[in-house]
Amino acid sequence: MFPNYHLCLLAALLTAASTTSAAVKISQEKHRPVLSNDSLQITINPDNGDFSLQAEGRIQVERGYWSQVGRRQDGRDIARLGVAAAPVITVDPAQHGGTRGEIALRFAPAGREGGLPCEVEMRYTLAADARTLYLSAVWRHGPGMAGFNVGEARHAMKLDRHIFDYLAVDEKRHGLMPSGADWDRATPLNLKEARRIVTGPFAGKAEHKYGYSALIAETPAWGWASSSRQCGVWLLNPSAEYLAGGPTKMELTGHLDVNREGTPVLLNMWHGSHYGGSALSIAENEVWTKVVGPFAIHCNAGQAPEALWREAQETGRREQAAWPYDWLDLPEFPRKDQRGTAEGTLLIRNPATPPGRIRIGLAAPPRPANRLGRTDSVDWQRNSRDYQFWGTVGPDGRFALPQVRPGTYTLYAIADGVPGEFSQTGFVVHAGQNLDCGTLTWEPERGRHTLWQIGVADRSAGEFRRGNEAGAWGLYYQFPGDFPQGVNYTIGQSDWTKDWNYAHCGISQEGRRGVDTAAWRVNFELAEMPAAKLNLRLGIAGNRSPEGVKLAVNGRPAGGTGPMPDTAVMHRDAVRGAWFERSIPIPAGLLQAGQNTLTLRVPVQSWPEGVLYDFVRLEAAEQDSGHGQQTVPPDELPQ
CA distances (Å), 71 to each of 251, 372, 414, 491, in order? Predict the structure, then answer.
């Protein structure tokens, strides 16, 4: 398959041999290129890009590999790549004083027989005296190439189950894990990925891969360590610009393999299908490229697992500070002097409550996407084909987004405590220049006033009962015991942290004495009959409900949301997914002066179905506030 492979690699090896003392070396082993320094050795399979890794004399990564799943426009799958060319040494350590080495693999677009119809280039980069391997990939699509949709794309590593026993993601989730033997003996639960451990020190624990999902953009380092060998392997993302879904996207990080022996798995899900998923759809002949990474695989040793994780976190922060890397020589990857900065001031006019953290970012505008024959709208929460650049707004309203790729963007902002989002189009970033975005005003869309609200508008159901236990398996099964009579919430008396469940689920629809626990009641008082219709505004943090939410006011039907996007959050034990809103008009004639009851019902047919509310708000009839991007009066103060 590779007639020129040996000749190409031999020529490169002869060049490298002139500097035998180089800290980084490139050699070959059984016709496979090997990249090494004094700490790491990476052996690469030129047929598919898989690699094995040995480090520090005690770390063994059995397999690291790229994978993607999806369909071509002709219905064939895209799991495999096209034909590989001979490996190329793109950075020869002999010509760089042994400071760095890099090997590239290049795959032609797959033909009519199926596979990914993209040219793919993978790069493996190693520096001297470093315990970090850098991986990057470029997908290139153009004329003559078939269209395709991707469901998932990731880099995964399978680690030695006899060595690694400690998984660390964040402050809540870091510690020893069940062994592979314990996993094999465990009792299956309601998902193929979930089991009840019955042997060993974790007997009684429910173990599943969704328990370790995280906001990837806010996680500097995650990975596995060994308590016996005192070593670790960590995944670091120095930039989230290439990741799908922006700063609120949840994805998998690491877990025990669902197959026999429970192998430790470490993931970089740059394009994922979970919690609302990501969209990546490329048309036939469309010109498109995407640089994935570079991201880093960091190895360390000589300390206890938690100390190794802390060191990996610090390394991750240093890698973020070094972004973008000046050593990556790809035409599709702009270096620091080829990027720009966007800065300005964002003011929120008359928010209902003082906002918390305000995220602001540049991303592509929403676009229609045809995914397996179904047309839907893809916003920044699901976009995977483009790049995104996010930061936060300071207390004075100022923001700066550095290291932005040149291009035309829409500016978005979301704020904890403020429903909806800000957007304004037409921001153009040029290489080597600062873009002054000026002073922008976000006037949140709302009615004349809010009558009442349950929850905090933060795109999460984490503030409700059991929401702080997110990640623990099967929280929805706790609902019948927590609310045997269903949810019966009284405005002004009830406490949403205790009296409102994190998920409006279908577990045990019939409670004690025949009470329909799928019908949640909100009791509230009106001093007088409203003069105009009201709106019930629902922020949705997660959904799987074929019919959506149905409403009744004082026992009479009042419409509902209708079907809503399926974001598959509840059964994966999370409290957030791709977020959206629904607003339902409430005719004034259904209300009365004095006591009123609003009923929210989620008709369900099976246990994974339910709705997670971000907030529930009753507002007076909307005024024509729009989204209010206009010049700010001189006396307007930052919020």
Answer: 22, 8, 33, 50
Residue 447's pLDDT is what?
65
Q: Does domain 336-442 have CATH number 3.40.30.10?
A: no
Burial class from Cβ neighbours inside 10 Å (0-12, 13-18, 19+) for residue 382 reads: buried
Strands (E), 56-143: 59-72, 88-91, 100-107, 119-127, 132-141
Give the C-alpha separation, 509 to 207, whole Å.
27
CATH fold for domain 5-321: Beta-galactosidase; Chain A, domain 5 (2.70.98)
pLDDT higher than threshold 80 for residue 502: yes
Complete DSSP assignment for 503-532: -EE-SSSB-GGG-BTTEEEEEEEESS--SS
pTM: 0.91
Cβ atoms of residues 540 and 614 within 8 Å: yes
Q: What is the pLDDT of residues 420-445, one digit of tens each?
A: 999 999 999 999 999 999 999 999 87
| H or E element in which residue 18 lies | none
Quote helix, strand, coil % in the chain, to nearest 5: 10, 45, 45
Q: Identify which of 398, 473, 469, 475 has the alpha carbon closest to the alpha carbon of residue 438.
A: 398
Q: What is the pLDDT of residues 112-130, one digit of tens each?
A: 889 999 999 999 999 998 8
Question: Element (H or E) spanning 367, and its range?
Answer: strand 367-371
Q: What's 23's DSSP letter? A: S
Mean pLDDT of the region 326-345:
97
Residue range(s) occupied by CATH 2.70.98.10 in the chain: 5-321
Contact indicator for 28, 17 with CB cutoff of 8 Å: no
Round to whole Å and give the CA distance between 508 and 442: 43
What span, in angstroms and rounded, lies between the C-alpha atoms of 367 and 534? Answer: 32
Instruction: List the structure tokens of 70.
Output: 């999806």
Helix (H) / strand (E) containing 479? helix 479-482
Name the residue type at position 543: N
Q: Which CATH class is domain 450-620?
A: mainly beta
First to last CA, the chain: 63
- Is the separation of the CB atoms in 260 and 184 below 8 Å? yes
How far is 559 from 396, CA to CA, in rounded Å? 42
pLDDT at 496 over 80: yes
| Residue range(s) in the chain whose domain bears CATH number 2.60.40.1120 | 336-442
Beta carbons of 354 and 417 less than 8 angstroms apart: yes
d(CA 49, CA 80): 11
Reported confidence tier of residue 617, pLDDT bands at 50, 70, 90: very high
Burial class (CB in 10 A: 0-12, 13-18, 19+), 171: exposed
607: amino acid identity, one letter: W
**Separation between Cα atoms, residue 544 and residue 567, nearest integer Å:** 6
Q: What is the DSSP letter of 622?
A: B
